[in-house]
Request: fold
Amino acid sequence: MDFASPDTVTLSSFIRDEERKNQSATGELSKVLSAIALGTKVVSQGVNRAGLASMLGMTGEQNVQGESVQKLDIFADQVFDAVLGRSGQFVSMVSEERESVIEAARGDDFSKYVIAFDPLDGSSNIDVNVSIGTIFGIYKRVSSGSKVNKERPKDFFQGGRKQIAAGYTIYGSSTMFVFSTGQGVQGFTLDPSIGEFILTNRDMTIPDNGTVYSCNEANSPGWNDQTKDYVNKLKEKGNCEGEKCSHRYVGSLVADFHRTMLKGGIFLYPGDKKNTEGKLRYLYECAPMAFLAEEAGGKASAGSVDILDIVPDNIHQRSPLIVGSKKMVEEFVSLA
Ligand code: P6P
Reply:
C-alpha cells in the first residue's frame, strides 16, 4: 500500500471528508467512530496475544445471559466501556456482559447518544482461533433530563429503524471495522504496521442472490415449518438460483455475517420449539446487522416482520434473525 497515494483513504480522512459533505455535522459521531476504532485496536491486540498472555479460557463465571464468560469477553467489555465512556458522547450504554444499563460518566448526562454493544461476540470460538467480533448500534436519545430511567430506558426501545449508526469489527485473518451512518456501508482494514484503518471496501453491497445458506442444522428438529420448508427447498433443488448451494456455518455471527455481506447468501438463526425467539439479541446483534444489511441492499427479517420494524421492550430481548441477499430473504418470508 502506498500510504502517500491520494487513493489511500484512512478512517480519519474518511470521517473528515464525510463531515465536510454534511453541513449539519457536529463532529460528535466522528468522535464515536474514532473511539470505537481505538477500542478495536486494543481488543485486536488482546485477541492476537490471548494465547501468550493466558487470556484464553473461562473465568468460571456466567454473564447475564447465563453463558460462560471467557476472559477476553471481560477484557473487551472493559475496553469498550472505557473508550466509549471517555468519548463523552453517550448518556447511557447497554453491553451484552452487563445486566442493566451503564449510566454515563459524570458530566455526560446531557450527551446526545446511547449505544448497545456486544463487546466480543462469538467468544466460544476464542480458544479455537476462529474469527470473532464486536457489534454495536447507536441511537439518538429521546429521554430528557440528566438521569436515565434504568427500568424503562426508552432510549433503547425506539426500534432498529431509529439507529443512526451501526457496525461490527471482526478479529480474523485481519482486523476490519465495518460500519454505516446511513450513507452506505464502509469497510476499513487495520494496517497493524502503522496502527491505521484503511478504506478497503467502499460502499459494500450484498448481491441480490447467493449460493450459501448458513444455519445450525443441529437445531432443525425444533425449527418451525417456514424454516424447514425453506432449507429443504434449497437442498431438494440442490441449487440457489440455478447454482450449486453450499452450507457454511462458522458459529460466530460476525464471521457468518461478514461472509454474507461480501459473497451474498442467507444467514438463519430462527426460533425453535425450545427458544421460540431464537438465541440472538435484538439490540446488539440483530438490529445492527439488519441496519447494515438494508444499507447494503439486503434484507433482514424475524420471519414475517422486518427486524428493523421490531420495537424491543427489554435490553436483552432475543429475536429470530434471517438476513442476507434480498431475494433469498424475500423467498423465506413468502413461506410464512
Ligand atoms: P450456536 C456466538 O455464541 C453466538 O452468539 C453468535 O455469534 C453465533 O451466531 C451463535 O451464537 C451461534 O450459536 O447455537 O449455533 O452455537
Observations:
- The helical segments are 11-21, 28-49, 71-87, 225-237, 253-263, 282-295, 326-334.
- The mean pLDDT is 91.
- The pocket of 6-O-phosphono-alpha-D-fructofuranose is lined by residues 121-122, 124, 216, 251-253, 269, 279 (CB under 6 Å).
- Residues 28-49 form the longest helix (22 residues).
